[in-house]
């Protein structure tokens, strides 16, 4: 097993600083005193930093004088002279600094492992233990992530590379597609690091829109999605996906008749879902720290491309004393940090204040968000779902939904009009149904599917057919 330290690398870094003082700032940007394992080397590093800060010339004589004596009264002058003499070149100083940092990280991992062992034996709950253990590991990541800043020159170089990548796309969408072309044309896809809020009053179709996006990203684009559902069970979510993907009336799924009336469509849709990388978490009482822990584990073990949280009003925080404003603020802040950390888009559903229903124009605006201050601050995009028929059943816009981009970084507020097919739990482009009369889109029990398949003499149990194909195992 390799030692969790390297005396040679520590000497090489310090020696490089002594023979070429202009490297001190560069090498020190990623190193701190505790990264040096040997006490004498820590003393030399501290002395170099102190002299540099004071504007005093740095060489082996001034450093030795600053230190005075080393451990066991050994001569600081002799020690520094050896460092200077035994480092013939500073050419590989950065590589040696990386070695020092790497070995320091290994030692930190060993310390964290001991701390996690003690946490595991403690009396706190399992979720608290997981959160504490994750914090131990995260502390290592944040302290060993390298330089915390980037030069403007490096920033512009990276940005030019990004611009070249965008140009190569030729105007194509740069992000995950929602599956609604007219919406994708406006937002150019869902991008890593974004927190997207999808909000609306009850019955508007927030969860339907979210699951349509999930199905498109996972089923049609082959990406991995993690869904935290606090409002609906996984069975209810599957009803929505089966209806949308299989063109099966939602009413037939709710009463179970779809198994006999649409067996082929059921099997085809279930096959699509089985082949998709969708993970569902529907345990009640989920905390935002739990969401972060599960998401990190999913990203590390399997990869992750999209996170959906339905909805933030039902997510808990660790501080039981927090009021509603503080709770929402903590949740949105943590979700935004999670999006940046994992470099994935996070879609979070949110309710709206009921006061908006008291005004003539009930189309929502950002200030209608419950406890909206932190949401507006943390969100990269706020999307509202509005259907006039919820309030006016006889409206001329029956069957039409408005997806309102109320606020977004780099995007002008706008409205995308789409068709809402509640009977199939889906939103689609209006152009997709051009020329055909809109169905009773508000009624989720409506039946607009093709004529049911003719009943067969004996319908094999769908569960039996599914288990025979997949053995009940996860992909």
From TrEMBL:
Which Pfam families does UniProt cross-reference here?
DnaB (PF00772), DnaB_C (PF03796)
- Domain of life assignment: Bacteria
Q: What is its EC number?
A: 5.6.2.3
Q: Which PROSITE patterns match?
A: SF4_HELICASE
* Start and end residues of each SF4 helicase domain: 169-434
Which portions of the sequence form the region Disordered?
A: 439-475
Mind listing the GO molecular function terms for this protein?
5'-3' DNA helicase activity; ATP binding; ATP hydrolysis activity; DNA binding
Per UniProt, the keywords (alphabetical) are: ATP-binding, DNA replication, DNA-binding, Helicase, Hydrolase, Isomerase, Nucleotide-binding, Primosome
What's a BP term from Gene Ontology annotated to this protein? DNA replication, synthesis of primer
Has the keyword Nucleotide-binding been applied to this entry? yes
> Has keyword Hydrolase?
yes
Top enzyme class of this protein? isomerase
Cellular component per GO?
cytosol; primosome complex
Q: Which reaction does it catalyse?
A: ATP + H2O = ADP + phosphate + H(+)
Q: Which PANTHER family match?
A: REPLICATIVE DNA HELICASE, REPLICATIVE DNA HELICASE DNAB
User: What is its biological role?
Assistant: The main replicative DNA helicase, it participates in initiation and elongation during chromosome replication. Travels ahead of the DNA replisome, separating dsDNA into templates for DNA synthesis. A processive ATP-dependent 5'-3' DNA helicase it has DNA-dependent ATPase activity.
Q: Which family does it belong to?
A: Belongs to the helicase family. DnaB subfamily.
Q: What is this protein called?
A: Replicative DNA helicase
Q: Which organism is it from?
A: Pseudomonas saponiphila
Q: What is the lineage of its organism?
A: Bacteria, Pseudomonadati, Pseudomonadota, Gammaproteobacteria, Pseudomonadales
């Amino acid at each position: 097993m390799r030692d969790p330290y390297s005396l040679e690398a520590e000497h090489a870094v310090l020696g490089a600083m002594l023979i070429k003082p202009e490297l001190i700032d560069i090498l020190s940007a990623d190193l701190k005193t505790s990264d040096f394992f040997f006490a004498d080397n820590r003393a030399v590093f501290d002395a170099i930093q102190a002299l540099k800060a004071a504007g005093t010339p740095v060489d082996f004589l001034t450093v030795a004088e600053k230190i005075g004596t080393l451990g066991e009264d050994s001569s600081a002058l002799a020690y520094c002279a050896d460092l200077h003499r035994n480092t013939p070149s500073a050419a590989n100083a950065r590589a040696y600094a990386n070695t020092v940092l790497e070995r320091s990280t290994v030692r930190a991992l060993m310390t964290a492992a001991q701390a996690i062992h003690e946490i595991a034996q403690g009396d706190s709950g399992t979720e608290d233990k997981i959160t504490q253990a994750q914090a131990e590991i995260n502390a290592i990541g944040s302290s060993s992530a390298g330089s915390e800043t980037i030069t403007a020159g490096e920033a512009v170089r990276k940005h030019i590379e990004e611009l070249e990548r965008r140009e190569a796309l030729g105007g194509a969408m740069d992000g995950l597609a929602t599956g609604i072309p007219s919406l994708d044309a406006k937002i150019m896809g869902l991008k890593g690091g974004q927190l997207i809020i999808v909000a609306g009053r009850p019955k508007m179709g927030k969860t339907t829109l979210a699951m349509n996006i999930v199905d498109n990203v996972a089923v049609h684009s082959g990406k991995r999605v993690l869904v935290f559902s606090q409002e609906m069970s996984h069975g209810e979510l599957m009803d929505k996906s089966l209806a949308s993907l299989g063109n099966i009336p939602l009413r037939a799924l709710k009463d179970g008749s779809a198994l006999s009336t649409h067996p082929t469509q059921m099997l085809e849709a279930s096959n699509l879902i089985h082949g998709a990388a969708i993970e569902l978490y529907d345990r009640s009482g989920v905390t935002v720290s739990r969401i972060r822990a599960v998401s990190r584990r999913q990203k590390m073990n399997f990869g992750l491309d999209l996170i959906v949280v339905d909805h933030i009003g039902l997510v808990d925080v660790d501080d039981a004393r927090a009021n509603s404003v503080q709770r929402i603020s903590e949740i949105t802040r943590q979700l935004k940090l999670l999006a940046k950390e994992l470099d994935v888009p996070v879609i979070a559903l949110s309710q709206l204040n009921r006061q908006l229903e008291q005004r003539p124009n009930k189309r929502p605006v950002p200030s209608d968000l419950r406890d909206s201050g932190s949401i507006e601050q943390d969100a990269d995009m706020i999307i509202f779902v509005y259907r006039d028929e919820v309030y006016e059943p006889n409206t001329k816009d029956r069957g039409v939904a408005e997806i309102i981009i109320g606020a977004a970084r780099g995007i002008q507020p706008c409205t995308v009009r789409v068709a809402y097919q509640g009977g199939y739990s889906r939103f689609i482009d209006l152009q997709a149904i051009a020329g055909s009369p809109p169905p009773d889109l508000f009624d989720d029990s409506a039946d607009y599917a093709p004529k049911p398949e003719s009943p067969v003499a004996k319908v094999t149990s769908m569960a039996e057919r599914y288990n025979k194909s997949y053995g009940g195992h996860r992909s």
